[in-house]
Specification:
single chain; about 250 residues; alpha/beta; Rossmann fold; 7-stranded parallel β-sheet; 8 helices; 7 strands; binds NADP nicotinamide-adenine-dinucleotide phosphate
């Protein structure tokens, strides 16, 4: 039955940035689809934990350094026995004129959004290979994986690179039964876009360009996130799927 292919029953997922926003929505969707979820966050994911109960386990880690990676994988295996899905969702954005853009704002964003993503993905993929199970990796990209943006050079660099390595890793790891894909959210109402939504002029410009006529929500991402984590997407490799209310096609 086709709907069975979307089930995540018996699967174990790691989702980074599980305390809020899109990551919290993905944790909820995965548990609803039958998975056990390890949510990684630097602040406790208390609300997510209350929402999801025993199917959710919180690992506290600051993803600005790669040192935390081995313990994330080890704790997941200790708690739920295996790993089948990784969602690289945690991300930061720094806004500053490019003429003045600081090295700190460059490094902060590139470390969380790209370096840790790559090395966590590598660690989880090694686990998939050791398990001989294959697996699913989903990288949260952005409209700025396709476009330049304004005043966000490090974010655009990181998200363009994420789309690029999604293809590289898919090419290398398809032979192990590992699917690496991305999701490019459009403009979603979360903490990440708080500053934009507070800026009357930018906010009106953005809204006027979205064919769907509204900002997206974490719920809008759930279908794509479950699809790419499930066996319904077994022949989808290296693609970044836009969930953007039509923004990119405009
Ligand atoms: P958000 O509400 O700001 O969530 C970002 C998440 O990343 C939070 O859980 C945050 O934890 C976590 N995080 C940031 N730095 C971290 C670190 N050093 N260690 C551990 N966790 C860290 O924003 P969101 O919109 O849900 O963003 C989720 C992803 O979607 C990001 O990759 C973002 O770039 C991407 N995205 C968002 C939009 C949008 O319109 N909202 C559009 C395109 C792409 P804290 O709460 O502790 O900071």
């Amino acid at each position: 039955m086709i709907l069975d292919k979307f089930s995540l029953k018996g699967k174990v997922a790691i989702v980074t940035g599980s305390n809020t926003g899109l990551g919290q929505g993905i944790c909820k969707a995965y548990v609803e689809a039958g998975a056990k979820v390890v949510g990684v966050s630097r602040r406790p994911s208390t609300e997510t934990e209350e929402m999801l109960g025993a199917s959710f386990h919180n690992v506290i880690a600051d993803l600005s350094t790669v040192n935390v990676i081995p313990s994330i994988v080890e704790e997941t295996v200790k708690k739920f026995g295996r790993v089948d899905i990784l969602v690289n969702n945690a991300g930061v954005i720094k806004r500053e004129d490019s003429l003045e853009f600081s090295e700190e704002n460059w490094d902060t964003v590139l470390n969380v959004n790209l370096k840790t993503v790559f090395f966590l993905t590598q660690a989880v993929a090694k686990r998939f290979v050791a398990q001989k199970s294959g697996g699913k990796i989903i990288n949260i990209a952005s409209m700025l994986s396709y476009q330049g943006g304004i005043r966000v050079p490090s974010y655009t660099a990181s998200k363009s690179a994420i789309r690029g390595i999604t293809m590289t890793l898919a090419n290398e790891w398809a032979k192990y039964g590992i699917n690496v894909n991305g999701i490019a959210p459009g403009y979603m109402a979360t903490n990440n876009t708080e500053a934009l939504r507070q800026d009357g002029e930018r906010s009106a410009d953005i809204l006027a360009r979205i064919p769907a006529g509204r900002w997206g929500t974490p719920e809008d991402l759930e279908g794509a996130a479950v699809f790419l984590a499930s066996s319904a997407s077994d022949y989808v490799n290296g693609f970044t799927l836009a969930v953007d209310g039509g923004w990119l096609g405009r």
